[in-house]
């Protein structure tokens, strides 16, 4: 009897085992969060930056609490869809927090601005395309710019809504597949950013927001200033201002549009409306995000590669009968 008692795992140990042994499907998203957090930790411990603990610590603690409770509840009689939701969403939100902070740290050591090279690539690959002329033509269509702005804003909300639907309809595996592709793409995007930093087409072509007042997002005009302050060392606090998206090449908005279209394709009733919506979001990366065309192509290629890898190693499970069909 004694050996059996010694080797039998305790109830509490079995309950909390998932906390220390994450499932294979969760590995890439958790590694991505860890890598981004490590970059932030290195930047702050090296003395280059100060972390805004008062601003971010409550958020981090809340995400950890929800994640921990979900892991513990996975062994209890709790509705599985709710447990899956409380695992997926905190990981996504942690990525959304630490990825831009990591890019802010990497901006300090980034290479010279690549705008001239990116603009030259646009001219070589698309000789009939003129960024300033295209923007000037769009300025005459405020309703179109408003529509493009709203789709551009929808990136984060779309991702959370997708994870919610997948979790609550028994498709958590597909939710983790989506997060794996999302986080893998984001890891590569952030890794490439310091090699090719850029202020974007609006700043490069000296087009002010006053010339494009119907672009409802100010990000394309705000982030060049943040990037400049990070690069010259005048910005040293990692706070809410550091959450400004800094990456131009590759365009993560373009990548996200492809990933979200792929993710929603698993939900029959939402498939075509969301593919259409994300096609518009993909197009919005140029006039709203201020991206070069090569940025959009690079982001699209990254997302397509991530999807191919995820589908190879994590083939999708059948859609449960009657799920939003």
TrEMBL record:
Pfam families xrefs: PAP2_3
Transmembrane intervals: 27-47, 59-76, 88-109, 150-169, 176-196, 242-265, 285-310
Q: Which Gene3D superfamilies match?
A: Phosphatidic acid phosphatase type 2/haloperoxidase
Keywords for this protein: Membrane, Transmembrane, Transmembrane helix
Matching entries from InterPro entries are given as:
Aur1/Ipt1 (IPR026841)
UniProt key word Transmembrane helix: yes
The chain positions of domain Inositolphosphotransferase Aur1/Ipt1 read 118-309
Q: What's the protein here called?
A: Phosphatase PAP2 family protein
């Amino acid at each position: 009897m004694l050996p059996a008692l010694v080797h039998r795992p305790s109830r509490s140990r079995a309950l909390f085992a998932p906390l220390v042994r994450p499932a294979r499907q969760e590995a890439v998203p958790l590694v991505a969060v860890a890598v981004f957090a490590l970059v932030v930790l290195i930047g702050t411990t090296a003395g280059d930056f100060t972390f805004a603990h008062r601003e971010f610590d409550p958020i981090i603690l809340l995400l950890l609490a929800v994640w921990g409770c979900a892991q513990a509840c996975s062994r209890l009689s709790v509705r599985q869809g709710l447990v899956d939701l409380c695992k997926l969403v905190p990981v996504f939100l942690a990525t959304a927090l630490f990825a831009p902070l990591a890019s802010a740290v990497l901006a300090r050591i980034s290479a010279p601005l690549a705008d001239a090279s990116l603009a030259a690539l646009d001219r070589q690959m698309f000789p009939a395309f003129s960024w300033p002329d295209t923007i000037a033509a769009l300025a005459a269509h405020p309703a179109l710019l408003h529509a493009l702005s709203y789709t551009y804003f929808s990136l984060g909300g779309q991702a959370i809504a997708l994870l919610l639907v997948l979790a609550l309809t028994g498709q958590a595996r597909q939710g983790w597949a989506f997060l794996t592709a999302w986080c893998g793409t984001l890891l590569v995007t952030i890794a490439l950013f310091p090699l090719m930093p850029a202020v974007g087409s609006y700043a490069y072509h000296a087009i002010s927001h006053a010339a494009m007042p119907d672009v409802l997002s100010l990000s394309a005009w705000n982030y060049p200033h943040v990037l400049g302050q990070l690069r010259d060392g005048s910005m040293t606090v990692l706070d809410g201002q550091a959450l400004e998206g800094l990456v131009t090449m590759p365009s993560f908005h373009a990548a996200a549009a492809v990933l979200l279209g792929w993710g929603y394709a698993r939900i029959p009733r939402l498939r075509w409306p969301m593919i259409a919506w994300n096609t518009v979001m993909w197009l919005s990366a140029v006039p709203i995000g201020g991206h070069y065309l090569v940025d959009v192509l690079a982001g699209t290629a990254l997302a397509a590669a991530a999807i191919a890898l995820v589908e190879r190693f994590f083939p999708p499970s059948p859609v449960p009968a009657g799920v939003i069909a």
